Amino acid sequence: MPTKREDEIKKEAKQILDKFAKALSKVKETPDFYVEREEDRRKEGDGSKGEKEFIDGVFENAPATKGKCFLAEKGGWK
Q1: Of 20, 27, 48, 56, whose CA is between 20 and 30 Å from 33?
Q2: CA distance 21 to 30
Q3: Is the pTM for the entire model greater than 0.85?
Q4: By the 8 A CB rule, do 66 and 59 touch?
Q5: Are 75 and 66 in contact, with CB atoms under 8 Å apart?
Q6: Residue 54 and residue 61: Cα distance in Å, rounded?
Q7: What is the dihedral of CA 15, 19, 25, 28, to 10 degrees?
Q8: What does the pLDDT read at residue 10?
Q9: pLDDT tens digits for range 41-71
C-alpha cells in the first residue's frame, strides 16, 4: 500500500507531465528539413603526409589488431 508521500509524489509527477504535454501541444510542427545537393558523397583526396602517423597511432591505441584490421566486440572498445 502506497504511503502518503508516495501518493504526493505520483500526484506531483502527473501534474508535471500534464503541464509538459499542454506546453508541447502548443509547439508548431515544422516541415521535414533537408538539403538537396548535386553530390551526396565527399571526394576522396590523395591523402596527406601525416596520414601514416595517424593510422599508426590509431593502431597503437587499439586493444587488439590483426594485420591492418581491428579485433573488437561491439561496445568493447571504450
Answers
A1: 20
A2: 18
A3: no
A4: no
A5: no
A6: 11
A7: -160
A8: 95
A9: 777 777 666 677 888 888 888 888 888 888 8
What is the grid cell recorded at 19? 503541464
Please give the Cα distance from 44 to 49 (Å, whole number): 15
Q: Is 24 left (phi over 0), alpha (psi -120 to 50) or beta?
A: alpha
pLDDT value, residue 57: 87
Between CA 74 and CA 1 the distance in angstroms is 43
**Residue with C-alpha cell 516541415?**
31
Cell of 45: 583526396
Q: How close are the terminal C-alpha atoms of the chain, in Å? A: 43
